[in-house]
């Protein structure tokens, strides 16, 4: 299990990570979200002992990374898939890592098979596409069969089939009881993959909740209406729901409205509806609004 407590990293005056606390629990995929520069990579680097916290702690199984015996068997990480020696073969790269931890040679073949690279095990990495390098990075993270995984943008460079593959792999790893933390900018993908979300903005925690609760509590509901006579609907909404948003097809989105009441209102005014449906904000819309709010909050705080 990974536990981050009051973690802060300052670069001069600027706090890249600012009093951050959360836990990555076993048995679920935790999505780690935040706009560019929010502090995700800095946080992951501190968990992995690559950056020293200004204050606070980042613990793996109750210890700082530097205090772990055979760390690859505790936590596997993919930070930068390009950070590999291009002259090595895929198997050679993994054999070198395995040897550093006294892992059996068979783990190399197993990890390559797991990520679909068995056939190119003896090819040099310089000929690998970005997607193949991502897979190799994931194989390295899995080499020590760790109980926790930290993956920074693992879907980067993968095609549609690759993205589906990573989704099912993350699911399987969590179902096996591992703690999986995955950062991504692909919101639609995260909505499908993550059970839990940790959202940060400017180094601060904005949300730490299940994906379902995040959408239920922070996402907005809107009612979409369309009428036979768009002008009549426009006139009705102008007085009853001035916040209604017109759409190119003549329909309107009415935020936070009650569909039954809206239907009754239309009937009362003899506006014949051809559509009345409820829609919820997507994860992307909810995320954008939440992180935009964070910007305003920071501006006030500054
Ligand atoms: N070595 C450093 N020296 C100074 N500032 C740094 C350093 N590393 C990161 N930062 C700053 O810290 C902030 C957080 O960066 P970080 O890379 O952790 O964000 P991120 O959430 O991973 O962003 P992205 O989504 O773009 O990868 C940024 O403003 C960045 O410029």
Automatic annotation (TrEMBL):
Q: Would the keyword ATP-binding be found if you checked this record's keyword annotation?
A: yes
Q: Which family does it belong to?
A: Belongs to the ABC transporter superfamily.
Q: Tell me, what's a Pfam family for it?
A: ABC_tran
GO MF terms here are: ATP binding
Which part of the chain is the ABC transporter domain?
Answer: 2-227
Q: Which PANTHER family match?
A: ABC TRANSPORTER, ATP-BINDING PROTEIN (PTHR43335:SF4)
Q: Which UniProt keywords apply?
A: ATP-binding, Nucleotide-binding, Transport
Q: Which Gene3D superfamilies match?
A: P-loop containing nucleotide triphosphate hydrolases (3.40.50.300)
Q: Which InterPro entries match?
A: AAA+_ATPase (IPR003593), ABC_transporter-like_ATP-bd (IPR003439), ABC_transporter-like_CS (IPR017871), P-loop_NTPase (IPR027417)
Q: What is this protein called?
A: ABC transporter ATP-binding protein
Q: Which domain of life is it from?
A: Bacteria
């Amino acid at each position: 299990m990974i536990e981050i407590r009051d973690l802060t990293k300052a670069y001069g005056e600027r706090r890249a990570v600012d009093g951050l606390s959360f836990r990555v629990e076993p048995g679920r995929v935790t999505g780690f979200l935040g706009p560019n520069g929010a502090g995700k990579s800095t946080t992951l680097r501190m968990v992995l002992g690559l950056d020293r916290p200004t204050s606070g702690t980042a613990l793996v199984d109750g210890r700082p990374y530097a205090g772990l015996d055979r760390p690859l068997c505790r936590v596997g990480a993919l930070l930068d898939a390009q950070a590999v020696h291009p002259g090595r073969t895929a198997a050679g790269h993994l054999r070198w890592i395995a040897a550093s931890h006294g892992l059996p040679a068979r783990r190399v073949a197993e990890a390559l098979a797991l990520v679909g690279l068995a056939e190119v095990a003896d090819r040099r990495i310089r000929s690998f596409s970005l997607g193949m390098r991502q897979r190799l990075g994931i194989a390295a993270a899995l080499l020590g069969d760790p109980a926790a995984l930290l993956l920074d943008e693992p879907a980067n460079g993968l095609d549609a089939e690759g993205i589906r593959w990573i989704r099912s792999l993350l699911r399987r790893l969590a179902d096996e009881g591992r703690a999986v933390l995955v950062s991504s900018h692909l919101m639609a993908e995260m909505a499908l993959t993550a059970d839990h979300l940790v959202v940060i903005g400017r180094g601060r925690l904005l949300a730490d909740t299940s994906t379902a609760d995040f959408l239920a509590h922070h996402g907005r509901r809107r009612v979409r209406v369309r009428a036979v006579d768009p002008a009549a609907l426009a006139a009705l909404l102008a007085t009853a729901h001035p916040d209604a948003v017109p759409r190119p097809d003549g329909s309107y989105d009415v935020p936070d409205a009650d569909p039954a009441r809206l239907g009754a209102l239309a009937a009362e005014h003899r506006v014949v509806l051809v559509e009345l449906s409820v829609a919820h904000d997507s994860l992307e819309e909810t995320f954008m609004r939440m992180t935009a709010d964070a910007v305003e909050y920071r501006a006030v705080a500054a």
